[in-house]
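Input chain follows. Return structure tokens only.
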Amino acid sequence: MTETAHGPGAVHAPGPAASSRGSKAVGISIAAAVGGFLFGFDSSVINGAVDSLGSHFHLGSFLSGFVVSIALLGCAVGAWYAGRLADGWGRRKVMVLGALMFVISSVGSALSFSVLDLMVWRVVGGLAIGVASVIAPAYISEVAPAKGRGALGSLQQLAITIGQLVVLSSNKGLAGAAGGASQELWFGMQAWRWMFLVGVIPAVVYGVLAMRIPESPRYLVLKGQYDDAAGVLERVSGESDPRGRVEEIKKTLKKESHSSFADIRGTRFGLHPLVWVGIIMAAFQQLVGINAIFYYSTTLWKSVGFSESSSFTTSVITAGINVVMTVVAMLFVDRVGRRRLLTIGSVGMFLALLLTAIAFSQQHGTGANVTLPSPYGPLALVGANAFVVFFALSWGPVLWIMLAEMFPNRMRAMALAIGTASNWIFNFIVTFAFEPMTKLVGLSWLYGAFAFFALASFFFVQRKVPETKQQELESMTGDTYRRPGPGQGPGPGAPVAEPTS
């Protein structure tokens, strides 16, 4: 799969057919997106193990929530430093580092003997996932041609959803084979330990693939390897004038080699307005409550009367819906546009979450003794899965596409790191608060709050989010905000990324 070019002659050799170049871009993007698979794996592996961890380590609701969510603090730190590491070491080496840390985390979590060392290994895994969550979308946006960048960028979210589906299916199989997640399976180890250990397999695959893909052309330009960069652009991205594109990248990267807070400063609370758009978009993606579904769905459905086996099955079905709708989003994101998908998703999520909140308003009992009378149990299930449908169609994949492509080159690495760190911080807040808040205010109020944020996200997209469909990364200046004219996207007052003159 290696596509690196060496020497000036590599650029002038006859290029492959357009379909061949397209397949190379897809193959390379899939390899990079395996980091998203690890992201999805880590976000859901705890789903099947959380009840067993609570009983094994005698955790209360506070510690149980903290064990689930502490990895997200590591994710935020990993995301913060990933951009600078990638600029210094290269995208591929940082991917390999992330794979190695995830292997260590998976083995350590599986063999943990106390809640303290389990939390340490969860943080290590979080660092790995934080790195992967930044590097994968950034790398894909840098190697993908503009006309297909949205679909290829969506591979990150598709890989996340496939990771969630695979690990939930794996959890179900392991728990079923052992007769329960807390029961011994092989070599005297409980099933929940094997749930963590399975993560070694995709981590090793990710590391191997990362060593075989070409380096990002923008990183190669940053390091002065212009011939290699032109070769990658021609062979992978299908550039008809690769040397001309190298010159464009050189111009836009002049400041990026010294990326600092000065590049993202602005008049609004010290940051450039576009950076704030990224931060708030990343926050909204978590504040609608998607990870309340994927971290706690098995526990949630058990609490309303499902058996452990049925709860695992329901979680797998939800993950499968997530995968299918992410594929649908990939088919439409470059045709319909980013903003339109986001607005459709916001409205759909609001209605689905509102239905779920109404269903849980009829609950009887609290904590582990919650029940839903007919027909509210099925309504809650329909609402939760409808929410996943609209999330996967819109905010799931589109956020990562936007964070990777809407910032100017001079601030992209720093702004992407800040936006991704924001996503992980709000992921931590929602995940950590979910279990205690279910006991404090109840699921109806929680889902009502998620519905409120879904509605607020609609108005935010209408007013603040730029359309970046089919624009080259070098055309994103981020310097001007204006009302769109005819054909420039829906919604009054929406900022757009203006092309350079």
